[in-house]
Amino acid sequence: MAGGPDSSFCVRNRRRKKGKDVIDDQGVAMYYDDFAACRETGESRDIQELIQQRDKLLSDNPDLVKTQEEIDRMLSTTFDPVLRLEILFMLISDKIDEMRSIFEEVLDLARHVAAE
After folding, report:
1. 41 and 15 in one domain?
2. How far is CA 111 from CA 82, 106, 107, 108, 116, in A?
């Protein structure tokens, strides 16, 4: 992972270990992309644009703020990128199941109305 203003990720106090970026925290090496540090040190334009798009989506759809807070809360304690993706997959799967359940209820109501 290359550093600098044009890199995909900005990581503070990083070093390379076995080809991966890690941060040492009191003797514990963590794989970590520190987006807060990126804001302080100049993150890539792509990341800035994605954050702006997310913020606009949230301002246009305030009902999504609670979901974003849930995502932020769950990801805030997870530094491993693979685990972060697994958490996102789990959250997306839960939302899809919730939408499927609601859709089935709507279909049942529509069938009931159509039968009358």
Report:
1. yes
2. 43, 9, 6, 5, 9
